[in-house]
Write a structure and sequence with these properties.
Layout lengths: L2 E4 L2 E4 L2 H22 L3 E10 L5 E12 L2 E4 L1 H11 L2 H21 L6 E4 L2 H5 L3 H12 L6 E6 H5 L2 H13 L3 E7 L16 E4 L1 H6 L4 H16 L3 E4 L5 H10 L3 E2 L10 H12 L1
Parallel strand pairs: 4-6, 6-7, 7-8, 8-9, 9-10, 10-11
Antiparallel strand pairs: 1-2, 3-4, 3-11, 4-5
Helix pairs in contact: 1-2, 3-5
Bound molecules: ligand C2E and magnesium ion (3 copies).
Amino acid sequence: EVKTQGRHGYRFYAPEMSQRSAASQRIENVLRHALAHNELSLQYQPKVDARLGHIVGAEALLRLQVDGQDLFAPDQFIPVAEDTGLIVSIGTWALREACLQGRAWQREGRPIPLSVNVSPLQFQYAGFYERLDGILNETGLDPSLLELELTERTMMTGGDGSIRLLRRIRQRGVRLSLDDFGTGYSSLSYLKHFPVDALKIDRAFVRDVTQDAETAAITGAIIAMARSLNKEVIAEGVETEAQSRFLREAGCSQMQGFLFGAPMPADVFQQRLAGQAA
Ligand code: C2E
Ligand code: MG
Ligand code: MG
Ligand code: MG
């Protein structure tokens, strides 16, 4: 029996592990190839104003596609990228690509806030701030048009050092949001320690909000508390009118989900923006 140390503690080697690592090995190879051959892309999912319904921003989401077909979904390849350290290059690529796109839209007179996901290893990797600062300088994007999405887990690991880094990023003029809120382990009272501008309510809450009275109560309480702390609240994964209505009435300021638009290529997103301005 071989004991290997995974990033999340000790794991025991078992037959199904070798299968998993074969799959993960394959994903790693595909990722390395994609990085070297410029086969990664970003799609943009609209964020809409909860009351007025117009697009107020977008989340940039990584895609690993060949001929428009997904080879692997982010939930499959991001964990492999994290475990192999490839996330540092991939995440940097995504950040630069989103900033270049944001800068292009800014130049065309259609500035639109974009958010980019940052995973734990990427955030903790030495030089994250310098890299971010470099990309902002190099692309010339107005930093107030950039938001970084981090989960509670990412913010909690690293303790005070992470809080200081978050503050520095914010001082650079970049917005911060707490992604997948409610799925982590931190208590609600912990929220006041995170210097974030916005909180994204996880899809798991949104899914059940019109089905389950307890979920509705918890979600309502999260929104009320976030608002009292002057944080913006965004709901993710909104798929139905009923969910949208509940969340709007509970005080969500922005929404994101298939009801308003799935992630789409940059040119399609740009057309939607143009259509809205007309
Ligand atoms: P996330 O940041 O929480 O992103 C939201 C995910 O929910 C996206 O999945 C999006 O396509 C999906 N989604 C949006 N609206 C709906 C809806 O109405 N219903 C349902 N069922 N799903 C919806 P996606 O694009 O597969 O990304 C999954 C995760 O992968 C992201 O979760 C994020 O954690 C990670 N990820 C994606 N791109 C990046 C990236 O550039 N860097 C890093 N570090 N992580 C990324
Ligand atoms: Mg996100
Ligand atoms: Mg999320
Ligand atoms: Mg997620």
